[in-house]
Amino acid sequence: MTRAPVGASGASERLDATINEWALQWNAGALLGIEHQAGPDDRGHVHWLVRLKGDERDVITIWLSLRQRSVHVETEVMGAPEENREALYRYLLVKNAELRELHLAIGPEDGIYLVAKVPINEVTVERLDELVGAALTYVDEIYPTVMTMGLSSLYRRRRRP
Q: Is 4 within a domain?
């Protein structure tokens, strides 16, 4: 099966330039690194991984995937919950109504993710900053609660000095 190519010509280069420009402005203490997959994957998508230092979670990895007409933004909040699923899903649905830019979703292997889709032409340094900032804030805000609810036998919250 032949996959559709990435949308407009030069979209990958423009997005890469936007990400690099954004990285120069981001808080150097929080940005741990950016990796770029130069060629498209088997679906025709090009990917970037943005790694950030979180407060509640040591490392927060945000995937930016350039698709045919949009940029898909995704970060895992937690793996598949093992306990209290009904209560956890209810919490997530209620929390979803409060979120801006991103929304909660059940992803591969039942993990909990924050996701967004943004039209390619709307991804500016400012919009990228909003998306990454929201992802970082939401993961740090939601992570302790969902881990306590969904993996309570494995998770113990860190106590900050």
A: no
Range of the domain at 113: 11-150
Instruction: Tell me how far the alpha carbon of residue 128 is from its chain's centroid.
Output: 11
Locate the DSSP E strands across 4-159: 31-37, 46-53, 59-66, 70-78, 103-106, 112-119
50 inside domain:
yes
Q: How far apart are CA 112 and CA 115, in angstroms?
A: 10
pLDDT tens column, 89-105: 999 999 999 999 999 99
- pTM value? 0.87
Whether 1 maps to a domain, the answer reads: no
The domain total for the chain is 1
Position 6 pLDDT exceeds 60: no
Would residue 161 count as lying in a domain?
Answer: no
User: Does the CA dihedral 130-131-133-134 come out positive or negative?
Assistant: positive
